[in-house]
Automatic annotation (TrEMBL):
Native organism: Bisgaardia hudsonensis
Entry keyword set: Amino-acid biosynthesis, Aromatic amino acid biosynthesis, Coiled coil, Cytoplasm, Isomerase, Lyase, Multifunctional enzyme, Phenylalanine biosynthesis
Protein name according to UniProt: Bifunctional chorismate mutase/prephenate dehydratase
PROSITE patterns in the cross-refs: ACT, CHORISMATE_MUT_2, PREPHENATE_DEHYDR_1, PREPHENATE_DEHYDR_3
GO molecular function (one): prephenate dehydratase activity
Amino acid sequence: MTLDLNEIRQQITNIDRSLLKLLSERHRLAFDVVRSKEVTQKSLRDLEREQQLLKELIEYSESQDYQLEAQYITDIFQKIIEDSVVTQQVYLQKKLNDQKGKNIRIAFLGKKGSYSHLAACNYAIRYQKQLIEVSCNSFDEVFHKVEKEEADYAVLPLENTTSGAINEVYDLLQHTELSLVGEIAYPIKHCLLINGESDLEKIDSLYSHPQVIQQCSQFIHKLDSVHIEYCESSSHAMELVANLNKPNIAALGNADGGRIYGLNVLCSNIANQLNNITRFIVIAKKPAIVSPQIHTKTLLLMSTSQQAGALVDALLVFKKHNINMLKLESRPIYGKPWEEMFYLEIEANIHNPKTEIVFNELKEYSNYLKILGCYPSEIIKPVSLDS
């Protein structure tokens, strides 16, 4: 007997609700885990335990003939593990860096609906704070709001998996006394947004931020004779297209922002890379204290002499002390042609005495060295089953 489609869907709904209940119970257990590790001072991540867990789950599924692929199980439980790790990190950080009050003022580029706004919402929700939005028209204004204590934090894009580093933000970091205190990896899902109904063939003008235009260059290239209008942010573009209300213009942005401005999605998944992620940094007036139990990153700003091998000598300090360097970016030094300032992101906690030894040694090979911030890594790398 064939079940009615509505009955099948109701069964699926019931199972989905049961899954949500179980996920909620597992999420709450993360707090019990971190309270235990808080006493024992164990590291939050136990890669061997995570690896063994995944293997056991796959073997159990096979023994029960659940007919679930190993990769499917791995993908789901990697996400669950990530949630558990981030939950535990937030718990420890909230205790170390007590944020008084229920409200949090966060400055960001653009208006409601911009990716920076969505990342700011994500950060506030994570720390269970009520977001007070501080909308800005430029990255410089974002920094200014925190420097003048008109905002508690700022959320700024630092790099994207498609378009690379956001140089303007790097340059502003070179001239500020603010500190990096966190990071957010936010998935970017670009859409073509229009008023009402229209056809792709009718679109002859596109509005968006330069970074978004760059990230959707392959899609734009396929369009015939389209005119590009650059805007201060993707949210400004969406607001402008909504106000102009013409069938021949469209904005590039996200679906959530589009709904705020009453726009419809004409095309989705239009970025050059489907796995398009922007890493946002969180900056504040004061540096954060990061628990030694947390996987920690530190961003440094350094310059070296112009002698041959000077940079190599400096980088070898990290190799000597077995410190992993995640990123090396260079930017021009204003007023000094052909000289570069280097941004180095390393896996290290500045509150660790061993790290202090490294920095003292690094000073011997650099003309200038500044710590821009020490912060929890919230990009949780999945454990490999092959390791």
